[in-house]
Write a structure and sequence with these properties.
heterodimer; A: about 425 residues; nine-stranded mixed β-sheet; B: 16 helices; epoxide hydrolase activity (chain B); Epoxide_hydrolase (chain B); hydrolase (chain B); aromatic hydrocarbons catabolism (chain B)
Chain lengths: ~425, ~425
């Protein structure tokens, strides 16, 4: 079903760089209200500064080279039911620990495969003295993102993205694996857990699991508990954050899930428009993360230079919202059964009381709680995220040895006994 | 309070036209899904055709000339409390009949002052036999639109737009006047009716009576209306209206949410990419009208009003932010303090929100209603004759039977004095 693996190096054409330069040279900026700050969107001074850097100073070729050096990349064809063959781009790095745990990392929007950059070395790292488990890591570009082909037909929703991720792991010889995902990666790995869980996917971890509010009819006990129990300070802060996102932060979601093509003309034609559209999220969705201008420009460049162009990535929102997965009650109706781990960060976009997760998630065996960090956990808090994965999958963890024959540790007699292999 | 009137002619500098051409020459189009049509947004083939026309064929100078010929335009400075002076661009055409009714037409988004183009001649027309009233017509570019300056500070919301409209009419010598508005014009004329109603605004007419949605009458809010509505089954038109409203809420309202929460972010695209701006607006022109046969040049003219606007295309989105944050439900026209002055409503089936007619009674002092079997959001552009006829019936005195708002403006009933 999947053809051969072809080594890949990012190599954006000179024509594309040239066109970008030409467009930046013609840039027209809007005005701005006095003292607007961040209230109305990305501030003019930020965008002007970023564009100036983009025109002069930012070295895409150097960034390209760094990415190619850090991330071993490949492509291969993957067949998706009803959608033909898509050429999928991915990172694959094996640990030197032979029995490392195969882990599929799934990114979201406006992220990309490069979100695996900081956690990759830590995940594949072999622990001296077997202190923590190691992982073989796979991170693919979602269809329509990075250097993967985009779907050609309508209807490529979460189920199809999940199919790609799953088939990729099988193609790489990982019959059993675990997953880590945030943003769309959370929905996709949830689908993987649901469809392929047990036989193939053995456990899943997400940094974005908010659950839903209990109502008297949906979850009477939870509902009643919250009538009498006061909310904690964390609950309240999380509620405010959640309300901010609901009221001020979801315009992009609405547009992308209803009229993505209309938006696509702007994103495809204006690098500055694309920059602003994404940069606003990079800042608003993180917890005081000190983005450098070059970091921002690299994230945007993955969209600007993506194989399918900057419009295709928004369609996942439309497909999801028009699929059964978005119907009311869908989350609660079909819950995965395999063990699940969650890392909670205070500046995620929806931060609801911990106990509400069980309304839409099953078999939560691990919860890591953190005092700082936002939506892009792998990028903002790589050590914390990897720390959680190590705890979850490590020798003392709740799912140690969940992948047959791959405990994540160098095999020793004692180790084999412990894993009951 | 207001400066002197200065005649105005649209005259975009050559350098702007050249920059537009340069940008269009570099246009990068996105891909498109197979058989997407209108489902995901504006189809690629439409966009390619429109951009090709914009580059070669669309004659902006001819459009300029035509508009300058048809619409007598001016600017004057208007002081707005807390915001200083703004230079306001407007059209003012008087009827030959001195006692014509002063009417302020207020446009919305993505419209402009040119929406008055088709109704202007009929409105100022005088009738030989006194069978219909005549109007003096004023329409202005909302601050941040067309050739008016934009607000410089946060907080320029419905009240401020209403202040501009009222001060403009006063400065033109119209102490009493009536208004007509749809889209943002509906929200602004509603505010004008609330604040200046009785003293200055004597009646208001809207083609968007239920705004983007109004609450249903409840037993406690409007007991009689509520009870009436219980016994009146919904008509087929009202049922279709509910479907239309649902479509808008679920599929058509995202522009509103982005503009009401992150207009500056959106503004970078709108300013930098004429193609992006074209798509953003064209989608509404088609989806919001009732199969109106837009010509490419018509579309490009409407979009050019944004592309060449005084304040730039980003400024126009801010009104959404200000109104949304001011009231929370800004556009719904909260039923608290409904204006008391006479209200007229024209119903068009493809408006964005079509509520049952009984609900509209909660909005104001409804004295005139007219139901149409076709037409959408841009009533003055799609159905100019019908809209003018509605205004003539509301304010006229056809065949000895006075319209419900006949003679509301002292000394200016729209007819020859007896």
């Amino acid at each position: 079903m999947s053809s051969t693996e072809v080594p890949f190096k990012i190599s954006v054409s000179d024509d594309q760089l040239d066109l970008l330069r030409k467009k930046l040279d013609l840039v027209t900026f809007p005005d701005e209200l006095e003292n607007a700050g961040w209230r109305y969107g990305a501030p003019l001074s930020d965008i002007k500064r970023l564009v100036a850097r983009w025109k002069d100073g930012y070295e895409w070729r150097a960034e390209e080279a760094k990415l190619n050096e850090e991330l071993p990349q490949f492509t291969r064809d993957i067949e998706v039911k009803g959608h033909g063959t898509l050429n999928i781009h991915y990172v694959h790095k094996k640990s030197e620990v032979e029995n490392a745990i195969p882990l599929l990392f799934v990114h979201g929007w406006p992220g990309s495969f490069i979100e695996v950059r900081k956690i990759l070395p830590l995940l594949v790292q072999a622990s001296p003295n077997g202190k923590f488990p190691s992982f073989h890591v796979v991170a693919f570009s979602l269809p329509g993102y990075g250097f993967s082909e985009a779907p050609r037909k309508p209807g490529f929703a979460i189920e199809q993205h999940a199919e790609v991720g799953h088939k990729l792991m099988l193609a790489l010889g990982y019959n059993e694996y675990v997953t880590q995902g945030g943003d769309w990666g959370s929905a996709i790995t949830r689908k993987i857990a649901l469809k392929y869980g047990g036989k193939y996917s053995k456990a899943w971890h997400t940094n974005m699991a908010s659950g839903v509010r209990p109502t008297f009819t949906s979850h009477p006990i939870s509902y009643l508990q919250y009538l009498v129990r006061p909310f904690t300070a964390e609950d309240k802060a999380g509620y405010e954050r959640t309300m901010w996102f609901q009221q001020e932060g979801r315009g992009y979601f609405m547009e992308q899930s209803t009229q993505p093509q209309t938006l696509g003309y702007s994103l495809a034609d204006s690098p500055v428009g694309l920059l602003a559209w994404i940069y606003e999220k990079l800042v608003n969705w993180t917890d005081g993360y000190p983005w450098t201008d070059d970091e921002v420009l690299t994230w945007i460049s993955i969209y600007q230079f993506s194989r399918a162009g900057p419009a295709a990535n928004t369609r996942i929102y439309f497909e999801y919202m028009h699929s059964k997965d978005a119907a009311p009650g869908a989350l609660a109706a079909g819950m995965p059964t395999i063990p699940m781990g969650v890392s909670r960060f205070p500046k995620e976009l929806a931060v609801l009381p911990k106990s509400w997760m069980s309304h839409t998630y099953n078999n939560i065996v691990f919860v890591g709680e953190h005092a700082s960090g936002g939506h892009f956990a792998a990028h903002e808090k790589p050590e914390l995220l990897v720390g959680d994965l190590r705890k979850m999958f490590g020798k003392k963890g709740p799912v140690y040895g969940v992948v047959t024959g791959k405990t994540g540790y160098v095999r020793s007699k004692r180790g084999a006994e412990r894993a009951k292999l | 309070m207001s400066g002197v009137e200065i005649p105005f002619k649209i005259s975009i500098p050559d350098v702007e036209l050249e920059l537009l051409r340069k940008k269009l020459d570099l246009v990068t189009f996105p891909d498109e899904l197979q058989d997407a049509e209108w489902r995901y947004g504006v189809p690629l083939s439409d966009m390619k055709r429109l951009v090709a026309r914009w580059k070669d064929g669309f004659d902006w100078r001819a459009v300029e000339k035509k508009l300058n010929n048809e619409l007598p335009q001016f600017t004057r400075d208007i002081e707005v409390a807390g915001h200083g002076k703004l230079t306001i661009h407007y059209v003012h055409k008087k009827s030959t009949l001195e006692t014509a009714i002063p009417l302020l037409f207020v446009h919305g988004w993505p419209g402009s002052f040119i929406e008055v183009e088709k109704i202007l001649p009929s409105l100022v027309e005088t009738s030989e036999d006194g069978s219909f009233p005549s109007f003096h017509v004023v329409t202005f570019s909302l601050p941040g639109y067309g050739f008016s300056e934009g607000a410089r500070k946060p907080g320029f919301a419905a009240k401020q737009y209403a202040e501009v409209g009222n001060k403009l009419m006063l400065s033109l010598g119209y102490n009493e006047y009536v208004t007509q508005g749809g889209d943002l014009g509906r929200a602004i004329t509603y505010k004008m009716a609330q604040v200046y109603g009785g003293k200055h605004v004597k009646a208001w007419h809207t083609n968007m009576p239920s705004s983007l949605g109004i609450p249903a009458p409840t037993l406690t809010s409007h007991p009689i209306l509520y009870l009436q509505s219980l016994f009146k089954p919904l008509t087929p038109a009202e049922k279709a209206g509910i479907e239309r409203s649902k479509w808008f809420d679920t599929e058509g309202k995202a522009y509103f949410w982005e503009q009401a929460t992150q207009p500056q972010t959106l503004g970078y695209s709108m300013s930098d990419s004429p193609t992006g701006l074209l798509a953003w607006i064209y989608e509404k022109l088609v989806n919001w009208s009732d199969a109106y046969p837009w010509t490419d040049d018509e579309v490009l003219t409407w979009v050019s009003m944004y592309y060449f606007s005084q304040a730039g295309p980003a400024a126009s989105a801010r009104i959404y932010y200000e109104m949304w944050h001011e009231l929370g439900t800004g556009f719904a026209g909260a039923v608290k303090n409904p204006p008391r002055i006479p209200m007229g409503a024209s119903y068009f089936p493809k408006e964005l929100n079509v509520s049952p007619r009984s609900w509209v009674r909660t909005v104001g002092n409804l004295v005139f209603e007219s139901v149409h079997s076709s037409g959408g959001h841009f009533a003055a552009h799609e159905k100019p004759d019908e809209l003018v006829e509605d205004l003539r019936n509301m304010f006229g005195r056809g065949k000895g039977k006075p319209g419900p708002a006949y003679g509301v403006v002292s000394g200016r009933n729209g007819f020859q004095p007896a």
